[in-house]
Write a structure and sequence with these properties.
Number of domains: 2
Radius of gyration: 26 Å
Structural class: mainly alpha
Strand content: under 5%
Number of strands: 0
Number of helices: 14
Distance between the termini: 59 Å
CATH topology of the largest domain: MetI-like fold
Oligomer: single chain
Largest sheet: none
CATH architecture of the largest domain: Orthogonal Bundle
Length: about 300
């Protein structure tokens, strides 16, 4: 009889323990649900607005669709069709890729080399130079626009992709060096010394040891830099001007909406179209992104 009662007693205790844990974690779960709803509410409103006709958008708010949520006549794809078939959108997509890919790869390469040098190479003024680089994080981007633009006009870089690549490289470098230096500097010193004892040069250590071990941190910075460059309007507007041949997607959308915002209903659909590529990049690198952020927070 004892052998039959004991499992029943254990199952009751186990169920009681689960209920107690669920009750204790209920406030946390409710808080997460409320914060998630508040966080996603603007995006939901933007999505619904992008699917409504222009006249309905001007007459009422997006939340009015919930009066008759299953009345599908109040939704349409006209805004998306207008944006996708607008003249110059295909060229704008290509220009965005032409700007974003090199403007992400170049600062990653330079920042990784610099982070290794600041972490494991001995040279005079290393700490002072690193402090100066990190201090550039507090310099407002807007302060540099006019001096850099004058230099570009003098050098003939204004209105060219090379000028935008260099600008984004300079603007992203302090953050990249800071993030990567914290990660690379926290790698085991014994590992670096063992490579040196085996006769590995700094270049060999960097390419075969540091880069593979630092992929999470590199991916984290890559996500930040790509999202920044892809969504940028200010830097492209200043250094590329209004030339349609080199205008990225963000600039093309502003001209599509109009100088007075009279076609702002197209902006809602255009926003979701521009989100596609950053979302693909983010979800593709999400695993490395989370690992890189957590590793940096623990080791730094």
């Amino acid at each position: 009889m004892k052998s039959k009662r004991r499992p029943k007693s254990n199952s009751v205790k186990h169920l009681s323990h689960q209920l107690q844990n669920a009750f204790n974690s209920l406030p946390v779960h409710l808080s997460i649900i409320v914060i998630s709803l508040i966080w996603t509410l603007p995006t939901v409103g933007l999505l619904i607005s992008s699917l409504r006709p222009k006249d309905d958008l001007l007459e009422s708010g997006w939340w009015m669709v919930f009066q008759h949520p299953f009345d599908f006549t109040q939704y349409q794809l006209g805004n998306y069709i207008d944006v996708l078939t607008a003249e110059g959108m295909g060229q704008a997509f290509l220009n965005s890729f032409t700007i974003a890919i090199p403007a992400t790869v170049i600062p990653i390469a330079i920042a990784t080399f610099a982070a290794y040098a600041f972490s494991w190479m001995e040279f005079p003024g290393r700490q002072l130079l690193f402090i100066l680089v990190v201090a550039l994080l507090v310099v407002p981007l807007q302060m540099t626009l006019i001096p850099v633009l004058r230099s570009y006009n003098h050098l003939g870089l204004s209105g060219s992709f090379l000028g935008v690549w260099l600008a984004h490289t300079g603007y992203g470098m302090p953050l990249g060096i800071y993030l990567l230096r914290n990660y690379i500097g926290s790698l085991p010193k014994d590992l670096i010394e063992a490579a040196a004892v085996d006769g590995a040069s700094h270049l060999t250590t960097f390419t075969r040891l540091i880069v593979p071990l630092s992929l999470p941190a590199i991916a984290s910075f890559a996500v930040f830099q790509f999202l920044w460059v892809w969504n940028d309007l200010l830097v492209a507007l200043v250094y590329l001007g209004g030339t349609p041949d080199v205008a990225p997607l963000t600039m093309r959308l502003t001209t599509l909406v109009g100088s007075r915002g009279e076609a702002w209903h197209l902006l809602t659909a255009g926003a979701f179209i521009t989100m596609i590529v950053p979302l693909i990049v983010f979800f593709a690198l999400q695993r490395y992104f989370v690992r890189g952020i957590l590793a940096g927070s623990v080791k730094g």
